[in-house]
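Changelog excerpt

This revision adds worked examples to the README so contributors can see how folded entries look when concatenated. The first example is reproduced verbatim below.
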Amino acid sequence: MANFDAALIKEQGVEFAVVAVRPGVISQPTRREDARSAFSASFGGVPVVLMEQTGGRPRYHGRNDLVNFLANVYVEQLPWASWSLN
């Protein structure tokens, strides 16, 4: 079992998860898609946006509408919690 940090969000009727990943995951397509699939299963199939943070600035990868929404939200405002991946 692995622990990870994520924020489960419901905004304008859309539920999705933002999952913090290690730097480099987003830039590697295979790792990125494997991570998204595993995390989506943990949240009952909701869309997942991956977030990596280097130098204080978050970088997101996922559905365009969700990424565009997150571009206008401070990462500290998200409801972060620790989760377990089975």
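The second example, added in the same revision:
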Amino acid sequence: MIKEAAKYKDEDKRYMKKVEARNVLEKYAYNMRNAINDKDISLMLSSKENEMINKEIDLVLRWLDFNVLAE
């Protein structure tokens, strides 16, 4: 059992790094959405800029949903 654990140790580390990277990207996307919806920041953006940013955020979140196994 110890040999088996050692065998998968590196694989587990790679998987954890992938999960952490996905979580960071997802958190960043939601933070951006919250930021552009902030009253002060939204006043600085035109409606076209706001729409463009929202589309890009949606694109990132959809990519994360459809590419669960992406590295």
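Reviewer comment on example two: The longest helix spans residues 2-37. The two ends are 28 Å apart (CA to CA).
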